[in-house]
Please model this.
Amino acid sequence: MKSRLIAALALLILAGCRPEVGYREPTSPAAGKQLSGSATVFAAASLTESFQEIGDLFRDENPSAGLVFNFGPSSGLATQIEEQGGADVFASADQANMKKVTDRNLIDGKPEVFVRNRLQIIVGPGNPKGIETLADLAGPDLKVVLAAPGVPVGRYAREALTKAGVTVNPVSEAVDVKGVVGPVTLGEADAGIVYATDVEAAGGKAEGVDIPEESNVTAEYPIGLVKGARNAAVGKAFIDLVLSGEGRKVLTDHGFIAP
Model:
């Protein structure tokens, strides 16, 4: 009896010493029903590279299931879900566009913030115009591209400029963050304001200039399963993978900030 009691106490101590796990374990076929069919994921354009990599992991773990990505501006994706549907999962680059969808009761449960992001000034390799601050973007001879104000990164950029007391007249307004990155990497524009992760994704085609904390903006990315999803099982499994330690490692490797 005494030995049984000691063994039980040892198990309790081990359980108590187990570290807190701040993420979900990824869903795997071995852990339950084999997943099949495909789910459509509507995701902010800034998630393109990281979600494609997580998608590869998902397919490795679920060979009978598939994912179809639709990347774009969160505002446009939210409108598409409201008016046309077609999404199983929605990952937004801001809370405002996720709220548009939740206010219409189109998300199953409560969306979860899975990652955060910060802004940087994007410039060409070697920073040929010598841009060091947001104030430099107001130079009259500088070609600056911003995302449209209705797009999350466009709104964030204007918030940062307002905090810094700077007025910028962009030569064009892009439909999403990739539309800002493109002209800078092609040498068609001198600078823009994007997420730090998009500078990272541009590789050697661009450089980033840090924006001071007092002028910067933190973007929160929520994710949720769309109500009435055509393939809820696959959609939920993808969300679980994004929220898992494995998924978050991919995201932080791409420069995102863990929530």
DSSP finds nine helices and nine strands in the chain.
